[in-house]
Design brief:
Elements lengths: L4 E6 L2 E6 L10 H16 L5 E6 L4 E3 L12 H8 L4 H7 L4 E5 L2 E3 L1 H8 L2 E5 L3 E3 L13 H9 L1 H10 L3 E2 H6 L5 E3 L4 H13 L3 H16 L2 H15 L3 H11 L10
The structure holds coenzyme A.
Length: 258
């Protein structure tokens, strides 16, 4: 169905694999457009509650934007490409939780995609970096902003100015990834984390994601007001009735996503 993506479903979890292993899953324009299309499909699919994104093969998550497509671009044509609807922004505002399962090189646009996800987990063999500076450019998919917000200016600045790679253990120490697993355990551990989240109310997950994302975009007063609105909106859902009733009846809730 897609030229550059594989999509599998494990119960309520969709696993999306960027499938260009011969190019270390570099994100060309066609792949970015396919990601936009698949997100629209998955958003509408009520059976899918959590999305996991990963890269094909055992070498790379995503080794960046496809550098071959930089050749021949002018400032204006590149700006046109980058001001269209963007896969990274769509990932960030996707209304279901997204986990980046980072199985190898996570560089440039690959790291920027991971930064647009909600949770990052990595193989102990993964390597991370923003190497754009080595090409005479800078991160253009949100890296200067999202990396800085996640790990702080000093550390983000060093990664972006040196273009050097760091290990999974270093990425974890920086708070860039939540968990590091042995390569052979990565998939099972990630799916277990996804399954834990998939049991929750899709309505509450959506509100929680939006509320947390607001923290990076709004001042404290506006963020706290938004949190109250989103909290209150949960009270309009069947899932809130079910969650509270299940607690009082001392049983597990069965959330339906309404
Ligand atoms: N864009 C386009 N092609 C890429 C790519 C990218 N970002 N990253 C890797 N590839 C291609 C290589 O050109 C090579 O293709 P080829 O076999 O047709 O020549 C193939 O993927 C394998 O990569 P290779 O460089 O041979 O693997 P390696 O193990 O020697 O090195 C890296 C791995 C990740 C260190 C190296 O590929 C690299 O530096 N990639 C670019 C990373 C980058 O700068 N990303 C930011 C882009 S803005």
């Amino acid at each position: 169905m897609y030229d550059n993506l594989l999509l599998e479903k494990h119960d309520r979890i969709a696993v999306l694999t960027v499938n260009r292993p011969a190019k270390l899953n570099a994100l060309n324009i066609a792949t970015r457009n396919e990601i936009l299309a698949v997100l629209d499909t998955l958003q509408a699919d009520v059976e899918v509650r959590v999305l996991v994104i990963t890269g094909a093969g055992d070498k790379a998550f995503i080794a960046g934007a496809d550098i071959s497509e930089f050749a021949g671009q002018t400032a204006l044509s590149q700006r046109d490409i980058m001001t269209q609807r963007r896969a990274f922004d769509a990932m960030e505002s996707f209304p279901k939780p997204v986990i980046a399962m980072i199985n190898g090189f996570c560089l440039g646009g690959g790291l920027e995609l991971a930064l647009s996800c909600d949770i990052r987990v990595a193989s102990s063999k993964a390597q991370f970096g923003q190497p754009e500076i080595n090409l005479g450019v800078i991160p253009g998919g949100g890296g200067t902003q999202r990396l800085t917000r996640l790990i702080g200016e000093g550390k983000a600045m060093e990664l972006i100015l040196t273009g050097e790679m760091i290990t999974a253990a270093e990425a974890q120490a920086l708070g860039l990834v939540n968990h590091v697993f042995a390569p052979e355990e990565l998939q099972a551990k990630t799916l277990a984390l996804a399954a834990k989240i998939a049991e929750k109310s899709p309505v509450a997950l959506r509100m929680a994601k939006e509320a947390v994302k607001t923290a990076a975009r709004a001042g404290l007063d506006e963020g706290l007001r938004r949190e109250v609105d989103l909290f209150s909106l949960c009270f309009a859902s069947e899932d809130k009735e079910e969650g509270v009733r299940a607690f009082l009846e001392k049983r597990k809730p069965n959330f339906v996503g309404r």
